[in-house]
Amino acid sequence: MEEERRILFGKYEMGRLLGKGTFAKVYYGKEITNGESVAIKVINKDQITKRNGMMDQIKREIAIMKLVRHPNVVELKEVMATKTKIFVVMEFVKGGELFAKVAKGKLKEDSARRYFQQLISAVEFCHSRGVSHRDLKPENLLLDENGDLKISDFGLSALPEQLLQDGLLHTQCGTPAYVAPEVLRKKGYDGAKADIWSCGVVLYVLLAGFLPFQDENLMNMYKKIFKADFDFPPWFSPESKRLISKLLVVNPDKRISIPAIMRTSWFRKNFNPPIGFKIDEPINDDEEETPGTPETPKFFNAFEFISSMSSGFDLSSLFENKRKLRSMFTSRWSVTEIMAKIEGIGKEMNMKVKTTKDFKVKLQGKTEGRKGQISVTAEVFEVAPEVAVVEFCKSAGDTLEYNRLYEEEVRPALKDLVWSWHGDNNNNSISTINNNINIINHNHDNNNNSNSNISDGSFGSDCDCESI
């Protein structure tokens, strides 16, 4: 079959060539099962392995695209490979580059504002993930069928591990007309602040139809950038000029920040913050209980209990296809007391709370985060008559927002409840806890003259958590 129409891994039909670069070609494709359009980037392994550091750069770009899942960022769907090629399957954005619009002339202020709002929303999200793009320009801003902006091309992007000991980036990269002055100086720079300068240049271009810094001689252009030497066309509104004047500030420490940008009246006009993801598990007050729910909590699988007590024993990655975001601890409190305590913590944090008969407490935030409202499920298991395991799972919402909420509010509030945290090195050792459980079971046997119901490992725990 011809390469242009071949079937890829039985999942995608590859079609026409969309574009090509030094090391890759991009094809139009369709997912066979649902007919969804995709873009498939085909990278030749032989070519990139011959160039030092190129494979690392591609791996970093893929890792970054997995991190920055946002409505205004081109979505990475999956990555596949053969012995000779890497196939990167991405969202197909068919509206073309924003550059094509600007090439026809300046945009109306409301249109420029809408694109700038979406750009800043996406850049702010990337920065919250520790990602700086470092090559923001209209050529790397695509438009979908609804006219919404999508940031693309993370090939020059940086992660925190690329910072040197001074906490700064030192690689000179980007497109000269859009690059920040501190990048050109070769003395180190903050990637996020450099991105903000580039956003300022993009906004100027959208409103003017041409660049703020331009000269046939590259060195003369750099001199203009170092001095922020530019003029405003007469049609710029006073508010847009004020904002651009704060964006294109030579000193990065005095340059406006993204939160400050989002507080300006010019930016706030008709601004609708994007909510990227809906709540996976909404808490419904009218939700009916499942018939036949147990009157006592499930026993925690013995193997799972032992492995949960130390990160060194955590073998879950061998059995789970997807990593789940969860935390566990043991408690000497009764199940009823644990449920009441968690319910009380949720109410104190102004969260919506629902308890179920199967010993779960569902907590849901009332405010919208980056990916909707945070939703958390706590489930109680019995290990022995006087020992319980409590498992917390993020059911919906943004992972970083959940981590902050859990570490700064939930975990401190659970202090009195906890006997031992999962994986904490400074907690009781596994042997100590196991000995204590044996003593508890022995005392329970003597008091009741019967065998305690310790799980034989035939009952596992299922936690319906959202994949990260």
Automatic annotation (TrEMBL):
Catalytic activity, EC: 2.7.11.1
Residues annotated as binding ATP: K41
Cofactor dependence: Mn(2+)
Domain NAF span(s) in chain numbering: 295-320
Cellular-component GO terms for this entry: Golgi apparatus
Class in the EC hierarchy, top level: transferase
A single GO BP: signal transduction
Domain Protein kinase: 12-267
Pfam families documented for this protein: NAF, Pkinase
SUPFAM superfamilies named in the record: Protein kinase-like (PK-like)
GO molecular function terms attached to this record: ATP binding; protein serine kinase activity; protein serine/threonine kinase activity
Protein name: non-specific serine/threonine protein kinase
Catalysed reaction equations from the record: L-seryl-[protein] + ATP = O-phospho-L-seryl-[protein] + ADP + H(+); L-threonyl-[protein] + ATP = O-phospho-L-threonyl-[protein] + ADP + H(+)
